[in-house]
Amino acid sequence: NQTQQLIASLKTLAIEQDTALWKRVAKELESPSRRQREVNIYKLESYARDGETIIVPGKILGNGVLSKKITVAALSISQAAHEKISSNNGEVLTIAQLMQANPKASKVRIMG
Questions:
Q1: 86 Cβ contact partners less than 8 Å away, ≥ 6 residues apart
Q2: Where are the beta strands (DSSP E) in 1-107?
Q3: pTM for the structure as a whole
Q4: Which of 33, 70, 97, 112 lies 20 to 30 A from 26 at CA?
Q5: Helix, strand, or coil (residue 58)
Q6: What is the pLDDT of residues 19-46, one digit of tens each?
């Protein structure tokens, strides 16, 4: 399963980089899917700062309006949410892509 492979690589990276964020994301992803986080665009608009990197250990949904340029990584993302983030010059990544781009998880916030 892809999620289980992702969890294993998150745990490995957490140990290698001594990063609590990756360990926490792995723990969140291990929970049952019905308990995983769902974050709407309006929540990103309210709590994310312009230019910030956000990780959601769950799904991003498209309800709301986004006016900020942010980078978002999530387990899954709805088409509407993807379009809203991209239309503001934001960036949408998978969690694995964020792990490669930022192994130390510097300036990354968990939201949900």
A1: 92
A2: 37-40, 53-61, 71-77, 91-94
A3: 0.91
A4: 70
A5: strand
A6: 999 999 999 999 998 888 999 999 999 9
